[in-house]
Amino acid sequence: MSMTDPIADMLTRIRNAGQARLKKTDIPASKMKLAITKILLRERFIANFKYITDGKQNVIRVYLRYGDKDTPMIKGLQRVSTPGLRSYAASDKIPWVRRGAGVAVISTSKGLLTDREARLQKLGGEVVFTVW
Question: What's the pTM value of the predicted model, to 2 decimals?
Fold first, then answer.
């Protein structure tokens, strides 16, 4: 069975693992998912990740990060642009997530960027998801 939205599946796996207080979760790998994982690591929403190669499809093992009293660092993940309804924003119309406390991930001509990076480079693009 084919998956219609692999990015939403990735976000759901991370969200569910955080709610279940798991230390790690495995995600089928792709270039886009690897770029998203690198952004989550750079923005300190996850502790670490490992790219595992196997015979079929490679796997990204995401190690989740928790704060005080074992609360997950990722409070929310929301898919903005879906395969059925793409959402684009110009550089001056990129949404603020939780008044700057969260991050919007934008797919631009220079690759995946956070909302702050896209505003600094004056690049618009597809708003993939938001995280806070």
Answer: 0.92
